Amino acid sequence: MDAGLFGGTFNPLHNGHLGIIKYVKQVFGLQKIFLFPSATPPHKCVTKVAPARDRMEMVKVGVEELDGFYASDIELKRKGPSFTIDTIEAFKNGNHKSDLFKKAHDPQLNFFLLMGSDAFFDITTWKKQELIFKAIPIIVMLRGNRTGIEPIASFIDEYISKGYKLNKKQARFTHKQLQPVHICNVPKIDISSTMIRARVKENRPIKGLVPVNVENIIKKKDLYK
Ligand code: ATP
Known about the structure:
38% of the residues lie in helices and 16% in strands. It has helices spanning 15-27, 52-63, 74-77, 84-93, 99-104, 117-120, 129-135, 150-160, 193-201, 212-221, and strands spanning 2-8, 32-37, 69-71, 110-116, 138-141, 165-167, 172-174, 181-184.
C-alpha cells in the first residue's frame, strides 16, 4: 500500500495544499497521505510563524473530514529543529511518539515524499539531503511558473547526482543506487500561506481559500493580525 508524506510550515494550511495533494493521491493511487507540520521550521523566519500547536490544530481540523488524509504531530513531539530525514526514518520504522500517527500506521506502507517544486529547489540546504534520496521516492509537484521538467533535470544533474536518468514519458528520474524522483504537474492553484496571512492582516476575506474550520481557528485565536 502506497502512502504520501507531506511536510510544511502550514502557516496556515490552505486549499492550495489540499488541492494538490488530493490530485497527487488520485494520480499515484496513494491510500493515505500524512501531513506533518514542522515544529521549528529551520528555513523560515520563526517570528512570523504561528505557534506549532495552532498550525497543528489547523491541519488536524482541515483534513478531519477528508478520507485517507491524516494529520501527524510527529515533528512536534521531537525536540529541536525539524529535519525531514528524521521524520522519514521515523515513519518508515514506525518508531516515534505520535499518537495521531499510530492510529493510521501500517507496516505495509510504502512511503513517497511529496514536495512542491519550490521546496525541491531548496533541498540542497536540507540536513543530510543525500540520505533523503537514498531513503524515499520523491514526488515533486510543479508549482506556479516553475513548470516543465527541464529546470528540474538541470537541478538534479548539477546538485543531486549525475546518475539520474530522465524518462520523459513517465515524468520520472531513475537512478541505479538512489530512489526515483517523480514529477507531477499539479493543477495551478494560486494560493499561498503568505497570501492568507496578508489578507487576514488587511481584514480581507479568506473564505474559499482555506477550509472553513481553519478559518474559524484563525478568527478564534486572532492569528496573523
Ligand atoms: P508560505 O507562503 O508561508 O511560504 P506555502 O503556502 O508555500 O507557505 P508551506 O506550508 O511552506 O506553504 O508549503 C508546504 C509545501 O506545499 C511546499 O512544498 C510548497 O511548495 C507546497 N505548496 C504550497 N502551496 C502550494 C500551491 N498553491 N501549489 C503548489 N504547491 C504548493
